[in-house]
What does this fold into?
Amino acid sequence: SPVNAETGSAHDETSSSGNKEDEDDDDDESDDKIDAQTHDPERLKAFNMFVRLFVDENLDRMVPISKQPKEKIQAIIDSCTRQFPEFAERARKRIRTYLKSCRRNKRARDPNSPWDATRPTPAHLTSVQAEQILATACENESHNAKRMRLGLEPVSQPMPILPGVQ
It folds into this structure.
């Protein structure tokens, strides 16, 4: 009997962590909160913007993470890990949460209205400093793409150090 009777495919939807992924599970996302004492809130904003940008450019926002091309998900995770090493463990979950949010927002709107890919980022989710961090991260990844096309290793950024945190 097929693993997934709904689609008739025997595709295993087990995530890399070994958990079955329900595309619309309303799991408690409170563990997605971070401690401002150990992480720079501006870098967190930039990280979230980075994830949204890369997902928007590379994935179908109406499709759950389990149905997305694995190599594209991994490439986004790798980029996040290189540019925001302090959030490396959160990258996959952030991608998944953003995809879920996109599907929820699409359902909440008029189903006949076109998806507005250019809607502005809410003010509380961005800042001048976060935009600068994002621009640097995107530039770094652009250089990394060129390096990889030449067969060179991509360059990762060092773990940031917050003043006063040992």
In short: Helices lie at 41-58, 70-83, 91-108, 128-149.
